[in-house]
Amino acid sequence: MGTVYAEIILKNAADVIDVQRGHMAEKDVRECTVRALADTGAGTLVINEEVRQQLGLEIKGLRGAYLADGVRQVCRVTEPVEIHWKNRDTACRALLLPGAEEVLLGAIPLEDMDLIVDPAARELKGAHGDEVVCLIK
Fold first, then answer.
1. Which domain holds residue 98?
2. Label partner for 54 (CA 20 to 30 A): which of 13, 42, 45, 128?
């Protein structure tokens, strides 16, 4: 079984809301495209300081997390981030892991976007096909 990476777009969710409310131009939304490891062992989105700064995310608190090696670490938690993969999106807070080399796309955002990890094909797939059944905006 191999690792699965996906190219995702991360956006500052507060910026996206400001665009919807007419307070900001869409071109000014802070976003970045990253290669993320699809990690079903991670609970949520995990980013590093560089990504946090690119997105201009504020820190909203602290949360304990267990790393893959079993060590418990206290991580800072950011304000919400929008995650976009192909024709799907979700939003969640991110854990800021000091020294993280990779962005981790965890189980909660994967589930919310109705995605599964196909280890044989080494790709993400829609759990119920590639078409999104219902989009609510």
1. 5-126
2. 42
